[in-house]
Amino acid sequence: MHCTRKHNMSTMIAKRRETLAVLQFPGKPASPLDCCILIPLLLWSFLSYHLTAGSALEGMAKPDFHIRHPVYLFNCSNIPAITISEVLHRGQYIHTLRGNYGSKFVLVKMVTMEAEDVHSCMKEMTPLFGGASDKINAKCSSFSNMKLMKEILMLQQLEHPNLISLIGFCVQGEDAVSKSLDKHGIIAVYEYARPFVAEDVSFWPLTHRIEAAIGLCDLLTYLDNTPLGSVSLGEHLSPDDFFVKGNTFKLVNFEGLTASQPQSLCQYGSVHAVPETKSWIVSIFKLSLGSKVPTSLRNIPCDNKSKYSKQNLSNIQKVLFRILLYEAVDLQVEIPNARWEVARNAMREAATDSNLTLSDLRGLLTELLSLFSSH
């Protein structure tokens, strides 16, 4: 049966080619009679081919596609209804702004001409071209626009409670000059969270601090095994890259994220030099990220499963765990002194020891949470 169908399809293709060959009249235009004969032949050939091809597909197993199609709350039709009130975070390429949609707050990300990378490019390029122009604006904002598009693409693959949630976007061009949301080129909308202020943590009870640290530990575990592979938080992480919702830290700045496993980052049971490697995320834009392993992490003990986790843990400890845990050792708590001294040492270890595995760190934090929850 299969051979018969294959033969029928080959016959139809051959007839179609023969029919097309008749259309070639070297040195002589087609007469009305030729057209009357050839047009029905072409239609018959076309229909016969596709009907035969369709019947040949019968009985074949249909591919099972499991493609995630997220449903977003915002798109190009309702994003212009958002009112921008203030800038909350100024990244090198992208600004994060507070937006009002009715009675609700949202976060809006967009490339503006005031962004550090765009502004420095404009300052350098404008004198060379004798003044500002649309061409210079487009050139200087193009890389930042690619960064924002890369972020949108990545967040369609990444999902975790400690990553700010993308709830919509609009892509309608490359304009970064217009302040109007109905004309701006690329806009991304996120759930609302407030900027992190280190002084606010001083009012948090120890249980909230430890719960926040456990959430961050879970984030590091997730980043080590995402659908994109191992993901690095980047070399230049800072407290400003996180916003807070309740007592949960939300990573907001994705400019430093690198979704690629470094070469020979870890060797089992050894301490070794980590080579400087460039990495790229494969996207429709082929955008090069070029993130390198920090110099401070060139020699670290690690195992064959850690990938970026040592680098990420060291960064989180310096940026957030010192505030959440290390500075908490001077707090007054109502537990026996001997147990409090043990807890202090454990919090110091969690905040500073980058040789801990993520599973051991989480176990340590869970024990601390149990200790303080019972008093």
Q: Going across the major beta sheet, what is the strand order?
A: 1-2-3-5-4
How many helices in DSSP terms? 8
The CATH architecture of the largest domain would be Orthogonal Bundle
What distance lies between the first and last C-alpha atoms, to the nearest angstrom? Answer: 77 Å
Would you tell me which CATH topology of the largest domain applies?
Transferase(Phosphotransferase), domain 1
Specify the helix fraction band.
25-40%
Q: Report the sheet-strand fraction.
A: 5-15%
As a whole number of angstroms, the C-alpha radius of gyration is 29 Å
CATH class of the largest domain: Mainly Alpha
- Determine the mean pLDDT: 74
Subunit arrangement of the protein: single chain
The major pleated sheet works out as:
5 strands, antiparallel
Order of helices and strands: HHEEEHHEEEHEEEEEEHHH
Structural class given helices, strands, pairing? Answer: alpha+beta
Number of folding domains? 3
- DSSP summary, beta strand count: 12
Poorly predicted runs of 5 or more residues: 19-30, 32-67, 262-305
What is the overall shape? elongated
